[in-house]
Amino acid sequence: MIMVSRNKLPVSSIHAFIGSLVGVGMADDVRNVNWKLVGKYLCGWVMTIVFCCGVAYVMFSASIHTPAYVVP
User: Fold this and answer.
1) Contacts of 72 (CB under 8 A, 6+ apart)
2) Is residue 28 helix, strand or coil?
3) Which one, of 43, 45, 1, lies nearest residue 19 by Cα?
């Protein structure tokens, strides 16, 4: 959180939460971290970006390829 705040980067509470859980788990032993759960969160973050890009593409394509109404 300190590095993110100093660099003025956006961060959500879930990023801080997952980062703190992984950090605390790794402080004792790397095997204490539930890597399967961390992978699910990472997959969710990646899929969110992919889904949003897909929705934006569909909306943009629909707006570009619709017939324009021309007033004579």
Assistant:
1) none
2) helix
3) 1
